[in-house]
Write a structure and sequence with these properties.
Length: about 270
């Protein structure tokens, strides 16, 4: 059984494979192995430069296309309407797919009117190039604006989310508008593995600190897309549904968060909440 989150008409598997920084044969092999293990959600982006390999892995797995939820994203430099359409088509050509399940604006770009970008995003859905549309790295204010401008339902905001970053306000804003949340860097780029609190909680359940970090998110209905290049880690990241954290454990993990816990910080990002 695939555990899913429903949002504005979309059904998104709670655990997916993130492919940021996966290249070439490794990327194709990880996608293929993940799908054979039972994953049904793969996340890529134009900027990752690996959409071709993601498509290759999908075909090699033998899993029917209709059973797999594929997400891709349009990069920040392609948010003008014409560029947006060209980028979307280029992504589909590389994936060798007629549509993706979810198309996201990868990062907001303050030099392009959001009205124009959201208009192009919604057009991609109307034209059948994406079954669903959404955003990524949008703050509360940007999200509110995007929802007002959208002529198609937005179903997801993909954000950095892990036990060290307090995203409570943004998650609440997404939920107010019926959007799901996808957490990238859900194990804080490996930092959780050395965490004594998470390790202690994991020991009580026969699980690793990373599994506790992922379970903490999925137990809140947050989608996780951990990235790995190791087969054994693929299995570990997927084995999250045979245990549950207690309310006390959830509360204790929540105390690890702070507004300063952000790992992905660069000049092209918005002014965070």
């Amino acid at each position: 059984m695939t555990h899913v989150v429903e949002a504005n008409g979309a059904r998104i598997p709670l655990v997916g494979l993130g492919t940021w920084d996966l290249r070439g044969r490794t990327c194709a092999r990880m996608v293929e192995e993940a799908l054979r293990l039972g994953y049904r959600h793969i996340d890529t982006a134009a900027m990752y430069g690996n959409e071709g390999q993601v498509g290759e892995g999908l075909r090699a797995s033998g899993v029917p296309r209709a059973e797999v939820f594929i997400t891709t994203k349009v990069w920040q430099s392609d948010l003008r309407a014409r560029d947006f359409e060209r980028s979307t088509q280029a992504s589909l050509d590389k994936l060798k797919l007629p549509y993706v399940d979810l198309l996201l604006i990868h990062w907001p770009n303050s030099s392009v009117p959001l009205r124009e970008t959201i208009g192009a995003l919604c057009k991609m859905k109307r034209e059948g190039l994406a079954r669903h549309v959404g955003v990524s790295n949008f703050t509360v204010a940007l999200l509110e604006e995007a929802v007002k401008l959208a002529t198609e339902p937005l179903v997801n905001n993909q954000i950095e989310c892990h036990p060290y970053l307090d995203q409570t306000r943004l998650i609440a804003a997404c939920r107010r508008h019926g959007l799901s949340i996808t957490a990238y860097s859900p194990v804080a780029r490996g930092q959780v593995q050395a965490d004594t609190v998470l390790a202690r909680i994991g020991k009580a359940h026969g699980k690793t600190a990373a599994q506790v970090s992922l379970r903490y998110l999925v137990q809140q209905g947050v989608i996780v897309i951990p990235r790995t290049s190791r087969t054994e880690r693929l299995k570990e990241n997927f084995d999250l549904f045979d245990f549950a954290l207690t309310p006390d454990e959830m509360t204790e993990i929540a105390t690890l968060a702070s507004p300063r816990g952000r790992l992905v910080e660069w000049g092209g990002g918005p002014a965070w909440d």
